[in-house]
Description:
The protein is mostly helical and 345 residues long. It has 14 helices and 2 strands, in the order ββαααααααααααααα. It has helices at residues 22-28, 41-50, 60-89, 107-128, 130-147, 159-165, 167-179, 187-212, 215-221, 230-254, 263-276, 294-312, 316-322, 327-332; strands at 2-5, 8-12. Helix 3 runs antiparallel to helix 4 (107-128), helix 6 (159-165) packs across helix 8 (187-212) and helix 8 packs antiparallel against helix 10. The chain is globular and about 70 Å long.
Amino acid sequence: MTVQVGSVEPAIDATAVARPTLRGHISIARPDHWVKNVFVLPGLVVALALDPTKTGWNLILPCILGMISVCLVSSSNYTINEMLDAPFDRQHPTKCRRPIPAGRVSIPLGYVQWILLMVVGMALGLMVNLPFAITMGVLWVMGCVYNIPPLRTKDIPYVDVLSESVNNPLRMLAGWYIVRPDVVVPSSALLSYWMVGCYFMAMKRLAEYVEIGDPARAAAYRKSFAFYTRERLLVSIMFYGSAAMLFFGAFIMRYRLELVLSFPLVALVMANYLSLSFKRDSAVQAPEKLYREPTLMASVIACALVMGVLMLVNLPWVNNVFSPGSAAFERLAGVDVNGPAEDGP
Length: 345
């Protein structure tokens, strides 16, 4: 059996000759995607910065268990994604070579793997604390909502990006709960993190759409592409990026004004990422390969280092300049800091 994809060479359906392998089953769990769980770290950093008394050796074990839990639950979601996407992957120029379309995975064992990864991940999550375990449960449920019919939100325009990107704030929440399970994370930080995830995910959609190059083929691969166009995706990217920065601004004004100094670097990261989405065979389509982009990595590392320092170091002059009510702020706003002169008797 062959599948013709435009001008691409016919992809051989190897299910008749290939056999399930351990490597195939490991591959659909996508351990190479665990790098995405670095998004847990900002939750840890923010929680520690807002309450430094939580720092201590007693955090080491919860951090280790928590990271393993996040990785396993994420792999459970990746597994069901691979299982249910196999018919559509056969319409993609490169994904048609993935383990399931190529016959290197046992379908019944694949479903067992999906559940087993979730169970072990949740058990480790409970060893951290209950709020963390609940967060892992929500992360797993969102994977089901995104992939499994009849909801399968990945097929619905805009909802696909919003529902997939909710994993970002959930990862941040996981990092926060490792440190502070008794306190609610600031909503402005979660919303900003969500919109940043939407910004990245919408660019992944744009890169995929541009790479396929044919609207009919694109719609056969991903149902939401029957609605999306380059223009619609670019407009949504603008919306998500703007919303992310507005919520980030709300967070820093309330909790950590020093972070305003990181804005130029944050903007640089976002601009570099957008630029990559227009490249042929862009790493934006496979975020686990972004480390191969030196310009992006340099800007990300610089931004992370600066933000880390700004979360921990107090700079009174920043508050004097930007804080509403300060003399410097009122002078910039044209307010007479001495107040109106009193009338004479």
